[in-house]
Write a structure and sequence with these properties.
The protein is mainly beta. It contains no helices and 23 strands. A hairpin with a 5-residue loop joins strand 9 and strand 10.
């Protein structure tokens, strides 16, 4: 079953949400692609402010550079200027990447978690070029090795991912729509070799390995990718992206997310915590956002990083809110 993406998680009068202490963050790179930052909409994105592009054909040979650049407003869902990749490509181009190097080699125990945020939107192909391609976000290490990819398939409108394990693309079970902006957050814990992806605050990939091949665990760059299904027949589809931000944060694990499963056995409300395998989490509940009571503690299981909790379901309660936190050993 493919599920549509939502913005909140509610069941009846019960609300499940993840809360945690604010982590201090070091900005590694941030841009809104605005003119005051030095971005010229009359030029390609590649070549400006250290952005780089590379195109390849089916054999992996270098191909002429294709579509990338900057768009002026108005763009539905965006403010100011935004970047794009796609729309037009040279003959026989198979893949087109654009990226801005970060070259982070995590060594400090105070900054083990890196978070990538971007607002993105995929515009569909038209009858002028009625072909449908894939748009992706791929993480590479400083050796240029691809670690993992989150894929937005514009033919099936599904979200998929691929690791460096030769298993190919795996479905997340989630879908997206053309012409709608989405908030994407990818969180990487290099200390524990785990990554999680959220779209509109919904976890679509949880606690997957950054590398399965013991590749070097650092971050060279996060690429916007246009993967053309049939070289020589690209669609005129394209991906808009804005508010590109990469931070390193002073937390020891990826913050948990909560999923309300529902009421079972008549009076038990099941809450699922999506976290990191082997980490112990405490679930707390409140009726007023002020007074919190611990429901219980559980260790997230491996693989998957899921812990489940049961709480008494009060049908007379006007609201009940849950939060989760990791428990220091």
């Amino acid at each position: 079953m493919v599920r549509a993406l939502g913005l909140s998680l509610c069941v009846g009068s019960l609300l499940a949400a993840a809360f945690g202490a604010r982590a201090s963050a070091t900005v590694l790179f941030q841009t809104g692609f605005e003119p005051f930052e030095g971005y010229d909409p009359g030029r390609d994105l590649a070549g400006q402010n250290d952005w780089i592009a590379f195109a390849s054909d089916l054999e992996g040979n270098t191909a002429p550079l294709g579509g990338n650049g900057l768009l002026r407003p108005p763009i539905a869902g965006f403010t100011g200027q935004a970047a794009y990749i796609g729309f037009n490509a040279a003959t026989n181009t198979a893949d087109f990447n654009v990226w801005r190097p970060v070259n982070l080699k995590p060594q400090s125990s105070d900054l083990p978690v890196v978070r990538f945020r971007v607002v993105m939107q995929i515009e569909d192909s038209t009858t002028v070029a009625p072909h449908f391609d894939d748009f992706r976000w791929s993480a590479y290490n400083t050796l240029g090795e691809r670690l993992f990819t989150l894929d937005f398939d514009n033919e099936t409108l599904t979200i998929n991912f691929v690791l460096d394990d030769d298993r190919g693309f795996q479905p997340t079970g989630f879908a997206f729509n053309n012409g709608e902006p989405y908030d994407l957050v990818i969180t990487m814990n290099f200390a524990r070799n785990l990554w999680t992806a959220e779209v509109n605050e919904v976890v679509v990939v949880n606690a997957a390995p950054i590398t399965t091949r013991r590749a070097q665990l650092d971050l060279g760059d996060i690429d916007a990718v246009w993967a053309i299904r049939t070289p020589g027949q690209p669609g005129d589809n394209f991906m808009i992206f804005d508010d590109y931000l990469i931070t390193a944060e002073s937390v020891t694990s990826i913050p948990p997310r909560l999923v309300p499963v529902g009421v079972l056995n008549g009076n038990k409300f099941i809450v699922r915590v999506l976290g990191e395998p082997g980490v112990k989490y405490a679930l707390e509940a409140s009726n007023d956002f002020t007074h919190w009571t611990e429901v219980g503690q559980a260790v997230a299981q491996s693989p998957g990083g899921v812990a489940e909790f049961e709480d008494w379901f009060d049908r007379l309660a006007t609201m009940k809110v849950y939060r989760a936190r990791s428990v220091t050993p």
